């Protein structure tokens, strides 16, 4: 049987893994912070279950991120437009497959460079 949600499940799993790594967390700690059971988190990370809206909200709150950082279905056209403009503004040669995490690293580096000018 074909799982039409599989591409979305894979993207959500990758996003959660990236956020765990970025925040130096494991599934157990995320479970404690979000109130989502370890088995449910495991199902999301292994693409067995599509995350529900309530758990996207819990996880986003626990990780202090926008819901769209977990589930791209929450992305608005405005957010996508900002991302596209940011990519173009930073460097025209950045590939379209740049991750949100990579953009954040680039923005932080730019802020760091700017802060050094002001001193």
Automatic annotation (TrEMBL):
Coiled-coil stretches noted in the UniProt entry, renumbered to this chain: none
Q: Which Gene3D superfamilies match?
A: lambda repressor-like DNA-binding domains
SUPFAM superfamilies cross-referenced by the UniProt entry: lambda repressor-like DNA-binding domains
InterPro entries per record: Cro/C1-type_HTH, Lambda_DNA-bd_dom_sf
Single GO MF descriptor: DNA binding
Task: Provide the HTH cro/C1-type domain boundaries.
Answer: 16-70
**Pfam family example for this protein?**
HTH_3
Q: What is this protein called?
A: HTH cro/C1-type domain-containing protein
Q: Which organism is it from?
A: Viridibacillus arvi
